[in-house]
């Protein structure tokens, strides 16, 4: 296996422990839209969100998000 790749088991464990879209939405409650991915990451840090949630937000495409629904849609695309 090449460096940096993960086994099916590791990927499955990661998926089981990945934060839910609801958890991300709860963490980002109150954020002002429109905003970009970096704004969402910084907001989550300021709110004291779990690192796992911040990591998921960091994986989002660098778009301008106009609503929480847009963020949730992007979350669905990266999972």
Q: What is the total tally of β strands?
A: 2
Quaternary organisation = single chain
Measured between the Cα atoms of the first and last residue, the distance is 22 Å
Enumerate the spans where pLDDT stays under 50 for 5 or more consecutive residues.
Answer: 10-16
Number of domains: 1
Q: Helical segment tally?
A: 5
Overall mean pLDDT stands at: 86
Sheet bearing the most strands, described?
2 strands, antiparallel
The spatial strand order of the largest sheet comes to 1-2
What fraction of the residues are assigned to beta strands by DSSP? 5-15%
Helical amount? 55-70%
N-to-C series of helices and strands: HHEHHEH
Q: Over the alpha carbons, how many angstroms does the gyration radius reach?
A: 13 Å
> Shape from CA axes?
globular
SS-derived structural category: mainly alpha
Describe this structure in words.
The chain is built from 5 helices and 2 strands. With 79 residues, it is mainly alpha-helical. The chain has one domain (8-78). The chain has a two-stranded antiparallel ribbon. Helix 3 (37-47) packs antiparallel against helix 4. The two termini are 22 Å apart. Mean pLDDT is 86; it is low at 10-16.
